[in-house]
Design a protein that fits this description.
Length: 267
């Protein structure tokens, strides 16, 4: 049953709740999809029925993931994209339209993290994080919104470190993730009633991934001890939030930050 994105009208009986989470017929562009959380998001969204465009710098890893998802029956394509380059972002969106005819959801997931004491951090190190995490998210959102129809969704992947202090020196990372939350609010206000596009931010805590595997054990212990649930998160526990924000289930949610952190920010 169709939903009018501007009024919420279903022109009849309300859509059954589980159907609201379906991604059937939707085309999703995912940045940073070559590994980690991004690859997990691709698996989750295609399992919910989406057609996925996988974008990242490491093209060979994208192809391996596309082959895996294709073997499961998903429709997938790949495009090499470094989000620091506005032209590369425009090319990724153009690829999506040319191959699949539409773009319904952007998962702005590409990210870069550093752990350098502020007094030792070099200007080029700080700028590189800003370029990927903040500027890249803006370029991708801008290019995507230009071709999206009303009812589309942009999900900016921020972090709980945009809301609370971290466990190691990460000035660049925390600053950019705070900025992404602010960017989300402004774009939601700009593109809501005018374009019918929802923009939300997802703020993950610490999840088992390639990145957290590199964190020293003593720091992981500190993270776990501060979490209300006393553990790191698992990919599928974050996937559910992504599907919610990408699907019609969140049709009246915009400008929000969804925190999935096991209670880390309670303290």
């Amino acid at each position: 049953m169709s939903i009018d994105p501007r009024t919420g009208d279903t022109s009849g009986n309300p859509t059954p709740i589980l159907e609201r989470f379906s991604m059937e017929g939707k085309v999703v562009l995912i940045t940073g999809a070559s590994s980690g959380l991004g690859a997990g998001f691709a698996r989750a969204l295609t399992s919910a029925g989406a057609t996925a465009v996988l974008a990242a710098r490491r093209a060979e890893r994208l192809e391996a993931l596309a082959e895996e998802l294709g073997a499961r029956g998903a429709t997938v394509s790949t495009v090499a994209c470094d989000v620091v380059d506005p032209e590369a972002c425009a090319n990724a969106v153009a690829h999506t339209i040319e191959r699949h005819g539409r773009l319904d959801v952007l998962i702005n997931n590409a990210g870069l993290g550093t752990a350098v004491p502020a007094l030792k951090e070099k200007p080029e190190q700080f700028r590189s994080v800003v370029d990927v995490n903040l500027n890249g998210a803006y370029w991708m959102a801008k290019e995507s919104a230009a071709v999206m129809e009303p009812g589309s969704s942009i999900v900016n992947v921020a972090s709980v470190l945009g809301l609370t202090a971290g466990f190691v020196p990460q000035a660049a990372y925390t600053a950019t993730k705070s900025a992404v939350i602010g960017l989300t609010r402004d774009l939601a206000a700009q593109w809501g009633s005018r374009r019918g596009i929802r923009v939300n931010s997802l703020c993950p805590g610490y999840f088992r991934s390639e990145m957290t595997d590199e964190i020293p054990t003593d720091i992981v212990d500190r993270i776990v001890s501060r979490s209300a649930l006393g553990r790191l998160g698992l990919q599928h526990e974050l996937d559910a939030a992504v599907v919610f924000l990408a699907s019609d289930a969140s049709a009246f949610v915009t400008g929000s930050k969804i925190v999935v952190d096991g209670g880390l920010t309670l303290n």
